[in-house]
Amino acid sequence: MIKLQIIGHIGADCTTNEVNGKSVINFNVAHSEKYKDQQGNQVEKTIWVKCAYWTDRTALAQYLKKGQLIYAEGTPEAEGYLNKDNQNAASLKMRVFQVQLLGSKNDNQAGGSQQNASYQSSNAPATNTQSSQMAASQVEDAADDLPF
Predict the structure, then answer these.
(1) How buried is residue 72: exposed, middle or buried, by Cβ count under 10 Å (0-12/13-18/19+)?
(2) Can you list the domains of the chain with their CATH numbers?
(3) C-alpha torsion angle, residues 39, 43, 48, 49 (rounded to 10)
(4) How far apart are the first and last CA of the chain?
(5) Percent of the chain surpassing pLDDT 90
């Protein structure tokens, strides 16, 4: 399994939809990094991730508002498209398994209390150490059966 983890701010209030009888919460997360380039100029790079959180806990949606700082974990997916200039471009998507509210931008400035709640999808992969070790040994056993 490939796992993507991101800490960032939500770009706009989330939307909740129902697809084939299942609920999904959609939101975008921005992660920004600052660094100096070779010429010594300060550069800020922002990566946006489109997130889809399939869950029956749609009450979480009331907390996924613009500016909210979150940690999200899931499986990544890249999607190619043509941009407005008719050039090839790609976007990063993630099927979210776990969301943790870390607080909003304004919490640190206003001195308010930070939210710290974790939500995990019922179909999320096991993350405890013992389960991970068992899964690793099962993968090694399965690799012996591969024809290549």
Answers:
(1) buried
(2) 4-144 (2.40.50.140)
(3) 70
(4) 20
(5) 49
